[in-house]
């Protein structure tokens, strides 16, 4: 019997496995991932100060290795809907240090972070092609059995659902209705490396002095319920993303169903994220609303479409998610609107859960202590995230700039201040 079975091989699941290797090496831990292996994904990950602090709490050398993969320089320009530059910020990382006023500690491809986390675990720590099929709880603290679609199963004292915002583990355990679609659809993917030079046709602004030159990344809040961006990552990867209101997507004829088209309950039938050329064909329907370069350089095979799914602050319980030998980390626990904090909060979860499992062993008491510590902070961040990102999606010009200024202040004071694992829960007022 395993001590801990982790379902999901994303940032939260892999980071938790590594944290347990370091903090509780006697525990028998296995990660189960539905994918066939490690694959390139279209997203980038911004490592914020709270993510860095959590990674250092897990494994300082691993934190250094992840941050070392960041690109060293990124000139970010924000423009209005007419293509006029509103602001620019030069971000620097690694040996160059952080530029004045910069929050992020690193900017790396999602797949590179996943690869480094998986490599840190060693051979055999992740079992691939293990799609979750069911969960059987044993009576009286007897653990649980995780069933997989290939007919195999794994018995464990504890089960951790790290299987994303449409978590099947959560549905099997709590059956609490699934997250709510918050009326936004996100398209993203990688640019074809041979065509990255064409980005200069969009990012054509030049300047002098500090922060001068052709931008590496460009953000365009249109004020019409749609935001487009192209941003450079390390390892020669450039990513594009479009965040659009559901009304805009529907008006353009995009075929995206927030919930399954048939069935009894939305929770059990929500559609998973898809990928590939079919998604790119849907993105093309937004062509008239996007900078032409975005779609001209996009690699269709890496394109994904997914919705913004959230759990509102009122949906967070006071002290515990539930009972029994199960808990959750990452988006399975606290799905938020896309804002660059998903991986960082998953790292926080991993650090705190590993702390309690190391202190109390593989017990249900350790799971409830972890949930009690995380819930106040997560409830506060959920309120901030939903309020701010819904406003940012519709803002433009100086309104957008002012909103981002207030957002930065709150992030510095609250979001980026990760309480050390085991510290008393604390909440903060939301003002944004």
From TrEMBL:
* A GO molecular function held by the record: FAD binding
InterPro entries in the cross-refs: FAD-bd, FAD-dep_Monooxygenase_BioMet, FAD/NAD-bd_sf
Which SUPFAM superfamilies does this one have? FAD/NAD(P)-binding domain
Any Pfam family = FAD_binding_3
Q: Does the keyword Ion transport apply?
A: no
Q: Which UniProt keywords apply?
A: Monooxygenase, Oxidoreductase
Query: Has UniProt tagged this entry with the keyword Oxidoreductase?
Result: yes
**Which intervals hold domain FAD-binding?**
321-383
What is the name of the protein in this document? Answer: FAD-binding domain-containing protein
Q: Which organism is it from?
A: Raphidocelis subcapitata
């Amino acid at each position: 019997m395993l001590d801990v079975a982790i379902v999901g091989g994303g940032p939260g699941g892999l980071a938790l496995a590594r944290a347990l290797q370091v903090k509780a090496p006697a525990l028998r831990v296995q990660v189960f991932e539905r994918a066939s292996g490690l694959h390139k994904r279209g997203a980038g990950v911004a490592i914020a100060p709270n993510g860095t602090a959590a990674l250092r709490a897990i494994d300082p050398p691993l934190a250094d290795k992840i941050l070392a993969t960041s690109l060293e320089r990124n000139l970010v320009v924000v423009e209005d809907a007419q293509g006029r530059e509103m602001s620019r910020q030069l971000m620097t990382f690694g040996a160059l240090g952080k530029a004045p006023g910069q929050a992020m500690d690193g900017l790396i491809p999602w797949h590179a972070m996943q690869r480094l986390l998986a490599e840190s675990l060693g051979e055999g720590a992740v079992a691939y092609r293990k799609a979750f099929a069911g969960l059987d709880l044993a009576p009286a603290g007897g653990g649980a059995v995780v069933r997989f679609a290939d007919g195999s199963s794994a018995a464990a004292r504890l089960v951790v659902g790290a299987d994303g915002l449409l978590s099947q583990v959560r549905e099997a355990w709590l059956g609490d209705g699934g997250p709510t679609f918050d009326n936004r659809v996100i398209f993203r993917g990688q640019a074809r490396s041979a065509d990255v030079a064409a980005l200069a046709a969009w990012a054509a602004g030049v300047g002098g002095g500090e922060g001068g030159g052709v931008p590496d990344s460009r953000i365009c809040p249109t004020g019409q319920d749609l935001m487009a961006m192209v941003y450079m990552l390390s390892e020669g990867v450039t990513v594009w993303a479009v965040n659009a209101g559901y009304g805009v997507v529907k008006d353009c004829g995009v075929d995206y169903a927030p919930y399954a088209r048939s069935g009894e309950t939305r929770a059990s039938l929500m559609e998973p994220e898809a990928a590939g050329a079919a998604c790119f064909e849907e993105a093309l329907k937004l062509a008239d609303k996007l900078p032409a370069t975005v779609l001209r350089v996009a690699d269709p095979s890496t394109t994904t479409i997914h919705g913004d799914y959230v759990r509102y602050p009122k949906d967070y319980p006071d002290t515990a998610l539930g009972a029994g030998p199960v808990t959750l980390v990452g988006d399975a626990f606290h799905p938020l609107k896309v804002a660059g904090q998903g991986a960082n909060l998953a790292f926080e979860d991993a650090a705190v859960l590993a702390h309690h499992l190391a202190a109390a062993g593989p017990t249900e008491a350790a799971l409830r202590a972890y949930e009690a510590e995380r819930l106040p902070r997560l409830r506060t961040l959920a309120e901030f995230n939903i309020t701010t990102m819904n406003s940012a999606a519709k803002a433009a010009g100086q309104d957008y700039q002012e909103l981002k200024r207030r957002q930065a202040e709150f992030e510095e004071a609250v979001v980026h201040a990760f309480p050390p694992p085991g510290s008393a829960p604390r909440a903060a007022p939301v003002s944004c």
